[in-house]
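Help!! Second protein's tokens look totally different from the first
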Amino acid sequence: MIERPVLAYLAQHPQWPWRQRLLDPLTTTRLFTTQVLHGNTAINHLRHLAGMNFSDTAYCNAPRRLPLALLQAVSDSVTRQLLPALDDACRWRGHRVWLADASSFSMPDTPELQEQYGQPAGQAPGCGFPTATLLTLCNAAGFIVQTWDLPLHTHEASQITKHAIFRMQQKQTVSFRPGRKHAGACPKAQRRGQPKSQWLSATGQARSTGALVQTQAEAQVDEPGAL
């Protein structure tokens, strides 16, 4: 499953230099995948799992030599191979169900990252760190289909071209009055007693073909932050 996309990438990019060694690109990709699947296990445990003998320094340097495009090609290939097996089990009334949500992560403070991603508002120049938005698209089984790293102040609905259920922020409340938007910002004092729901954003509704009519979703979350 991993060998084919790695070898295809190497064949398509002969200009990328690499040497035949113990930790060659294919072996490194396999080890890196194994490490992640085992919960980012320690290198000592990884050596035991792989039945190989390499130093900590050699393995730490090996993934850094891999082009990001190679890892993306492997991820895309694995997704295409596994997704059809989950297709029938992840449908709602015949429709494929997609779930989208976003988080954020900080990075080292460099001019390039500051320009690309920005930083949270309210932080004085030189006192904050660049922060990116991490957007993921999953199917109903929780299988991650695609990810994006985006500038901090990017709304996830602007990046998704599929029908998706977006989690609205808590400040969004539902109004069923005629002519009103389904969800809109409302002061906290006025939100008491008003129903909350997850609705497809206006952008998402505009892109909808009409095939999926019901855009409301309800979910009971027993653990804070689990949704």
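Here's the second one for comparison:
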Amino acid sequence: MHYSSPQPSNFVNNGKGFVVNKLDFDALFDVSSPIFALDHFLMSEPTFPPHPHAGFSAVTYVLPSSNNSILNRDSHGHEAIVRPGDLAWTLAGRGVKHEEVPLQRGVNVEGIQLFVKLSPENESMPAEGFAVKREQMPIVNVQNSIIRVLTGTYRDTSSALSLPEPFNYLHITSQKEDTLSIPLSAQSGGLVYVLEGQATLNPQMALEDTKDRSTLEKNGVQAFNAKEDTALELRLSAGAQVLVLHGQHHGLPLYSSGPFAMYSKQRLTEAKAANAVGKMGNLLPYQ
């Protein structure tokens, strides 16, 4: 197992009605691949007009405790109301225009948005949209914790959502202090993000060996990857809420420009050109 340095909370105002925990993925992506962005946000007003994406998936999880919902829509006709506890997965592929707005203006919707890089084989596939409702997500009771499986698999339990590329998205809530083991497949990478309480990664490490042993506080993040089949060991404080997110670690340099992210300069140039001539569709701002 390899770990990044932990990052603490860094919430900032980023436009009218939008507050976000800004994380430094220049320091994380080598380890966290395929994840190259995570925004923990509070949004009360339409903040970003319709905009293009290409080469990755934009994944929005409205936290179960949120006071509002999101309208998620794109230029290929996918549209969903993402209510508290629901998840929307916009696979941009070769390109799509996308917009998300709070369903009720003036009321904060709290959520997590991920950018998950598609593999070189799939980064130019046709765009698709997926959604899964809270009540469709399986729940696993493990020791003193509850694990909600948003996407992917936890041991023998799988999400109802079928994705072109495997990605495990777990929301873990501890009822008492607990120690958990999360299976990881070879060549996987991802993040641990703390919503509430504390999480200690690799708690079995000797106290004096702090290189691979970190305690994350609320809204802290740490990346990990595994070259072989192994497990991520976590110790959670009582009442902790933690997201564990992981998929295939690509180990490739990323070429990005604004809303486009590819694994080759040529494909990045092609995506920008496709957007310039309208090949990613048209989407007017939601009224």
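Reply: Different proteins will give different token patterns, so don't panic. The first helix runs from residue 29 to 32.
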